[in-house]
């Protein structure tokens, strides 16, 4: 007979499953991250896993969506605390560093990500798409700032700047320094 978990244990186990999945996904990718290994690291049986998530894909969807929400909330808080261009720059740097720590956030063009997307349900795919849209819309909705240029162009420039993380390993200079320089100098051309 399966052991019953207290509400506190359930909360801790669920958080651990998400944290371990995030670490393994970043390190090994979706395909090489197994439910068995995650359960082993968390200290639960594979059967107990399904008390928390209906599938491996449901866990990965939760990880991706919660990471995107967390990043957007932190960036929005930075822009709320520090109004103006300097707040936008700080928020951009925060987003970039979060992406740097979580490679699964920017690997949507990889075979590994395609495998995941082929296995998620339609509902999960829509949730993941919606979470991705949050980060793209974050800089559009800044109430105290207006763009100097077409908003779609500005958001495309910001998105391109963040996605430059894919080139971080081929740059001759530290990629964080490069990003910071570009963010510091680009914002004046985007916002009034």
Q: What is this structure's SSE topology?
A:
Blueprint lengths: L6 H22 L6 H8 L3 H7 L3 H26 L3 H17 L9 H9 L2 H16 L13 H13 L11 H16 L2
Helix pairs in contact: 1-2, 1-4, 4-5, 4-7, 5-9
Q: What features would you describe in this structure?
A:
- With 192 residues, the protein is mainly α.
- The protein has two domains: 1-53, Homeodomain-like (Arc Repressor Mutant, subunit A); 57-190, Tetracycline Repressor, domain 2, CATH 1.10.357.
- It is built from nine helices and no strands.
- The radius of gyration is 19 Å and the shape is elongated.
Count up the domains. 2
CATH fold-level name of the largest domain: Tetracycline Repressor, domain 2
Strand content: under 5%
Give the termini separation.
Answer: 64 Å
Strand and helix order: HHHHHHHHH
Characterize the main sheet. none
Supply the number of helical segments: 9
Residue share in helix: 55-70%
Radius of gyration (Å): 19 Å
What is the approximate shape? elongated
Structural class: mainly alpha
CATH architecture of the largest domain: Orthogonal Bundle
Let me know the number of strands.
0
Attribute tags:
mainly alpha; 9 helices; 192 residues; 70% helix; Tetracycline Repressor, domain 2; 0% strand; single chain; Arc Repressor Mutant, subunit A
Summary?
With 192 residues, this protein is mainly α. Helices cover 70% and strands 0% of the residues. α4 (56-81) runs antiparallel to α5 (85-101).
């Amino acid at each position: 007979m399966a052991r019953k978990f207290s509400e506190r244990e359930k909360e801790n186990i669920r958080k651990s499953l998400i944290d371990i999945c995030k670490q393994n996904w970043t390190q090994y990718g979706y395909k090489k991250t197994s439910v068995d290994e995650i359960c082993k690291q968390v200290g639960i049986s594979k059967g107990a896993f399904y008390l928390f998530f209906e599938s491996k894909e449901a866990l990965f969807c939760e990880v991706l969506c919660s990471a995107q929400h967390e990043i957007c909330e932190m960036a929005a808080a930075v822009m709320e605390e520090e109004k103006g261009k300097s707040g936008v720059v700080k928020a951009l740097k925060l987003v970039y560093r979060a992406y740097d720590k979580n490679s699964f956030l920017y690997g949507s063009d990889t075979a590994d990500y395609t495998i995941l997307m082929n296995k998620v349900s339609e509902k999960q795919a829509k949730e993941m798409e919606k979470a991705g849209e949050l980060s793209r819309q974050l800089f559009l909705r800044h109430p105290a700032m207006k763009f100097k240029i077409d908003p779609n162009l500005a958001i495309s420039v910001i998105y391109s700047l963040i996605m430059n993380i894919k080139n971080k390993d081929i740059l001759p200079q530290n990629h964080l320094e490069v990003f910071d320089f570009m963010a510091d100098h680009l914002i004046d051309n985007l916002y009034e």
